[in-house]
Amino acid sequence: MQDPRLRFLSIAVLSLASFLSVWGALGALVWLVVARRRTDAMLQPRVLLPLFAMVGLTALVSAWGGGNGLSYFIRMSVILLLAAWAYAATAEGEALAVAVWAFGNRAGFDIGLIAEMGLAGLGIIREEIEQVGLAMRLKGIRPGLRSIVPLALNLVITEIRRADEIARLLTVRGYTAGGVVCPRFQTSLNEILASISAFLLGLLPALLLRDVFILV
């Protein structure tokens, strides 16, 4: 979808539908499969597998405690896939453009700037993880708990320092609040129909066939 407004709206609706019920998650999954055929945007499996492992572990804990772990796993997995597709399909500057369009050049610019910085930080973390993984394979080091925990802490500390440096740079350049952006969007009929189908496949089943679920 070229229009980020419709893409973000569709993802928000489908994520809400997936959170509400399994039927909404299944409808969202159908929509995602169809949308996925029109673009190659998706995170690599090696990035998604650890995230799915954490969702699966949480689902097992929920089931062990008497909750509906299967329902949790299905719904959270679909939400994870939607987020991965949205992240991979989002181009630089789109979050800022949508925020300014929705909230104006003051509050919208600040919100969009924070979103852009967050997305850029995720991209940097992903690249650093890939570089560290390559270095570990070249050295013959097998990834384990002893190596993953220090790596995760190092990435978090590095990202915090990077955010502090960016904040200082913005302050030095005189940034206080707001900015001027003139967003332009291209919307096609197919994208409008895709957004409508997001409501039909996701939100309606979630509301009509809502099941009982436990938050973990």
Characterise the protein shown here:
The chain is 77% helix and 0% strand. It is built from seven helices and no strands. Helix 1 packs antiparallel against helix 4 (69-89) and helix 2 runs parallel beside helix 4 (69-89). It is globular and about 55 Å long. The relative contact order is 0.20.
Task: List its salient traits.
mainly alpha, 7 helices, about 220 residues
Q: How would you classify the helix and strand content by structural class? A: mainly alpha
Helix content: over 70%
Helix and strand run: HHHHHHH
Radius of gyration: 20 Å
As a percent range, the share of strand residues is under 5%
Number of domains: 1
Shape: globular
What's the number of extended β-strand segments?
Answer: 0
Residue-averaged pLDDT: 77
N-end to C-end Cα span: 33 Å
Sheet of most strands:
none
Uncertain regions spanning at least 5 consecutive residues: 211-216
Q: How large is the count of helical segments?
A: 7
Q: What topology emerges from the helices and strands here?
A:
Elements: H1 4-20, H2 22-36, H3 45-64, H4 69-89, H5 94-138, H6 145-172, H7 189-208
Q: Brief description of this entry?
A:
The chain is mostly helical. It has one domain. The protein has helices at 4-20, 22-36, 45-64, 69-89, 94-138, 145-172, 189-208.
